[in-house]
Design brief:
twelve-stranded mixed beta sheet, 10 helices
Amino acid sequence: MGEIVKYIADETDGKPFGSFKYGYDNDPQMRIPYEEQDLPISPKQYAENVKIPQSRDMEALSRQLSAFPPLFHYFLDGSRMVYKVDDIQYDKKVYPLVAGQISVACCERIMKDDGISFGSFQHYEEESYSVLALPNAANSKGIDSSVFFRNLCNKINSSEQAKRKKLHLQKVLVYSSSQQKDSSFDKLATARIQDEMVDCEKKIVAKLVSQHKLTPDHYLIKDGSLQYRTIKTGDFGELKKIRSNYQRVVGVSKMFNPNLMSNSKGQSIAAEIANLPLFHRTPAIMWEPDPAFCEANFAIWYVRIRERDKTATPYSGILKIEKMLMTGDESERGLTTDEVDMITANIINERNPVCYGKDARWANHLYPVYMTECYCKSKFKSEYYFLNIF
């Protein structure tokens, strides 16, 4: 049993078991999807003013726009690693003691003085830290939960054990002690750590907006979906309060479930997506999720950025693009087709160079997003090192 685990058990009146330590991320049963919720997407209507059901060819526009400064200057990616470090008993129940590493990075493209030539690519903002997830049963004294777990975090960081192991926790997160249907305590803890990562992503977007970095000429690509569910924890849990921050943010997903998308007749468009010609995009459709899940409407479309005959699967080389719709006319009627075309053409122009041979997902990667992802993951401590801290 590690010193840190014993210290936590002593401070919370728990009984540790000295269980085997391992990472959850290699366990298929423990995976929580990063990029898309398993919800069917039935469009209410088109999310653009030109309502043509056929795909649109973006090659000519992308070539034309390549002579101008790129639209996207900022790239955001978040990642987390989650680990079982022990089991601990509270009030005759056994709960997992879960630790996590969170890394969120925003990289910036710097242009040369001519405004067109590429200058450098560097990190703009990052958040990398460790967290611990405990059940609320650890607060057996009935103290205010936020106060108790904040004080516990401070105690752990100040302990001699943590100083020897060079451990610094940013937060002690809390998951429910009541086991929910279809959710083990392990998954509840993992979801809590993932919510913290998502909150960190929202914080960086808010900072970019407050510093006036996101403008009509300087957009941000967020790696993955923008379908943030409403959560009760974190500083940015309620999307309706912060969605104005996402006016210049586009979500780009490398992985998606095409069978979740249907047309206005309720028919799957999976085959239509798979058969997209190179540089063609689908029409943008409007999705109105259940407000209990997410408090925003979305424009969603797909584009092929790699040749079908040079990729491994029908969906290799296809990206899912999301734009959150703001309040007012846009939320009701969607985007203009010119804006959808402009976003798509600029995304096509981000496809080269490729990371072929470095990542099995090369066909779906945009290179600046790939570089941001690599930078983000470089901040993690190795699994062997991190587990042995505890």
